[in-house]
Design a protein that fits this description.
Layout: H1 2-24, E1 33-38, E2 41-42, E3 50-55, H2 67-74, E4 84-90, E5 95-99, E6 115-119, E7 129-130, E8 136-141, H3 152-169
Antiparallel strand pairs: 1-8, 2-7, 3-5, 3-6, 4-5, 4-8
Helix pairs in contact: 1-3
Amino acid sequence: MSLGKHAVSYWLGVSLVLIAIQATAGQDSVDGYTNFGRGSCQDQRGKQYSYLQRVDSKGDGVSFPSAETCGRQECERFGNLEAYRGFEYSVAKRCTCLFDIDEIPAVPNDANNPMYVSKMDNGNGAVTGTSGTPGAYCYQFGRNSGVMTGSMGGLFSATLLASATIFMLF
């Protein structure tokens, strides 16, 4: 009977580790940011943030080759603003820079500068979670992160699950 109990614990632990690995796979890490995972970034009230997104002359979103390019070369230019919270990088390779409610910076939209679209929303304060819906990944800017930066959130989760598995085995 004890052997059966250990076998169930073992396979449950293996399953949890595999889920943790799958959950963290495919998420780019970006220096200076915490990757919160799949979904739109949300504040402590579950509200999404106001945003700026670069568009081309036809109004279509501009593609960025990676989350690293989005965060470091596009959105981090706003890093000196207290209202800048991070960015979302979509599966369509769109880059959306996030800000607190009513705090989107003014950007010139003329022939010599990139064009942007914006949307006001009610998010305010540090990113605390995501919507969980597919289509984008949420990255919180480092100075707003009270816990970890880069892909450490996924590593922490995988480590925690592995520790729980080992505990269950013994």
